[in-house]
Write a structure and sequence with these properties.
Elements: E1 2-3, E2 9-11, H1 20-31, H2 37-46, H3 51-63, H4 67-80, E3 88-91, E4 94-97, H5 98-112
Antiparallel strand pairs: 1-2, 3-4
């Protein structure tokens, strides 16, 4: 977790996977304020219909295991860009639209919260 001197949360990272250079790059970007939870939240407040910002913020909540908040934002991505034309992200080493990835995350959340029989 990265905090401001006053204790305000800037960003967090859940887990680690090699190589260490990638992790260092992630920390450096956070220290520069690039796509942090804090910066994305501020941008979302100013641009509440920006699909890229909403998607990235939803992904932050998803990685932090906040499925309700993530789902709310992923649903906004799908509603704002149903045809998936407003940008892409990487998923399993392939480029997919924010919308496709949001739909996948919504389905995965639904399946994981389904009661076992």
């Amino acid at each position: 977790m990265i905090l401001e001197p006053d204790g305000t949360e800037v960003d967090w990272f859940v887990g680690y996977s090699p190589p260490p250079e990638k992790y260092q790059e992630q920390v450096d970007r956070a220290l520069q304020g690039v796509d942090t939870f804090q910066s994305l939240s501020a941008r979302f407040a100013k641009e509440p219909k920006n699909v890229e910002i909403i998607f990235k913020l939803a992904s932050k909540y998803n990685r932090r295991n906040k499925p309700e908040k993530a789902a709310e934002l992923f649903k906004q991505v799908v509603a704002l860009d149903p045809e998936g034309k407003q940008g892409t992200t990487e998923f399993s080493n392939e480029k997919v639209s924010y919308t496709q990835n949001a739909e996948f995350n919504l389905a995965a959340t639904a399946m994981s919260s389904r009661p076992l029989t």
